[in-house]
Amino acid sequence: QMADPFLYNTGDRSHYGCLGHEVQIEHLKAYVCRPSFSTDKAVIVVHDVFGWRFPDIRYIVDLIAGHGYITICPDFFKGTEPWTSTDHWADFPDWMKNHDPMKVDKEADVVLKYLKEQCGAKKIGVVGFSWGGMAVHHLMLKNPQLTAGVSLYGIIRDSEERYRLLNPTFFIFGEKDHTISLDQIFLLEDKLKQYCKVPYKIKVYPGQVHGFAQLKPEDMKPDDKPYIEEARRDMIDWIKMFV
Fold it and tell me: Which PANTHER family does this entry report, sorted A to Z (predicted)?
């Protein structure tokens, strides 16, 4: 019996009234939210296994847009079914084979082109959660067009090439995330010190489990709230510093 890697309850989601709208970009659907004023700065949000329609991720898109960025969350699953909380964890490895977070380059290129040509974006950052955090780690190694990245509890584990980041990258982890051990975090830190030529940051938030940072306010436990809010502030600060 595989432990459920997502300790936060995805069953009873409170309804979230989104501020943005959906668009079609080439072969991708995407959720976009714009700030109230015009800007040439944008952020791509990479969703977790629950997909681009999940209320928590749309909440994050709106939150980032509120800080002055054209923010977009494309469907990186390209219309295929996201994971759901009723699926069986035994099937997860097979599902992952068809949803590889390191195969997001084509979609990223489509979205970058859209942001530059249709939205007038000149500087573009990327933020991703869990599955999306792995995608961000991958993209920050491959795509120089992304001026900064924030990976929340997602790392690429099995390649020696994974430390040569192209642009500033911030890794956020929960101390009690049982999908990413502290050993893996220390290894990442150690190797980045050796190989990474750009600014990077690693931060571990006390007592937090996998998925902690994308909870909506009404779904937060009081003890976790300060850490969730701190992680979000840190995420926004990193984006503001480099994008």
Answer: CARBOXYMETHYLENEBUTENOLIDASE HOMOLOG
Let me know: does 180 contact 205? Beta carbons within 8 Å: no
- Is residue 13 assigned to a domain? no
Chain centroid to Cα 49, Å, comes to 11
At residue 17, the pLDDT reads 67
Nearest to 57 by CA among 240, 231, 211: 211
Q: How many domains does the chain have?
A: 1
- Whether residue 191 is contained in a domain is answered as yes
Please tell me the predicted confidence (pLDDT) of residue 233: 96
CA distance 192 to 86: 37
Q: What is the pLDDT of residues 181-228, one digit of tens each?
A: 999 999 999 999 999 999 999 999 999 999 999 888 888 899 999 999
The CATH number for 83's domain is 3.40.50.1820
Q: How many CB atoms lie within 10 A of CB 46?
A: 31
Q: Is residue 4 part of a domain?
A: no
Query: What single string gives the DSSP state of each residue in the chain?
Result: ----S--S--SSPPP---SSEEEEETTEEEEEE--SS--SEEEEEE--TT-TT-HHHHHHHHHHHTTT-EEEEE-TTTTSPPP-TTS-GGGHHHHHHTS-TT--HHHHHHHHHHHHHTT--SEEEEEEETHHHHHHHHHHHH-TTEEEEEEES----S-TTTT--SS-EEEEEETT-TTS-HHHHHHHHHHHHHH--S-EEEEEETTPPTTGGG--GGG--TTTHHHHHHHHHHHHHHHHHH-
User: Which tokens sit at 212?
Assistant: 């902690």
The span from the CA of 57 to the CA of 191, in Å, is: 30
Give pLDDT, residue 213.
93
